[in-house]
Amino acid sequence: MVTPLRGLVYRLVVAVDVEGYSKLDALDQSLVQARLSDVLDAAARNAGLDRDLWYRQVRGDGELAVLPADADAAWVVARFTEQLARALADLRAAGTPLRMRLAMHCGPLTAGAFGLVGDAPIVACRLLDAKVVREELATSDDDLVLVISDRLFADVVRTRFHDLDPTRFRPARFRVKSTRYSGYLCTVAPVRG
Q: Could you read off the pLDDT of 93-118 as tens digits, one per residue?
């Protein structure tokens, strides 16, 4: 059982969203939700992560999660992303493809009356919902597009820990609600091959 967030914390936030969910009927939406839960569980398990320890906020066709304080951000960017791509490839091979966007950011947040509040969840959600990220997935042959914040790129990806490869990321800039955001897109494995 996840301990509720208390006070202002600085954590890694992971957000996912499924492509085309709102165009589905109720039965297909429920099937997509089940597949989404399965691939997130499989990716975390195969990356050695325990999703039961994540503070999770369900979003219908996605999830906003806060990882524990001791989570290795470089490991999550490298291995969770890699395992999520594999789980999605397995779904495609089984004839039940699922395409999604994955966003990550680290920053301050806390629990509020209606969910997470603070910079970290807002930035993660803005990155996830950015038009440039949606367009990247729509035109990609891959089933997963990763977008991370500038801060996460500078603090984590550039370290090259866990075989992260900064050259596999490209900058993206966009504006939402009069605020400028920037991040890095990755449409291939974020690690050296």
A: 999 999 999 999 999 999 988 889 99
Helices (H), the chain: 26-46, 73-75, 81-93, 119-129, 131-139, 150-155
Residue 2 domain flag: no
Please give the model's pTM, rounded to 2 decimal places.
0.94
The answer as to whether 150 is a domain residue is yes
Does residue 192 lie in a domain region? no
CA–CA distance, 70 with 158 (Å, rounded to integer): 20
Overall number of domains in the chain: 1
- The answer to whether residue 69 is domain-embedded is yes
Token pair for 163:
């075989």
Residues 120/13, Cβ–Cβ less than 8 Å: yes
Extract the tokens encoding 151. Answer: 């801060």
Q: Rg of the Cα trace of the chain? A: 16
Q: Are the C-beta atoms of residues 104 and 12 closer than 8 Å to each other? A: yes
User: What gap in Å lies between CA 22 and CA 6, rounded to an integer?
Assistant: 34
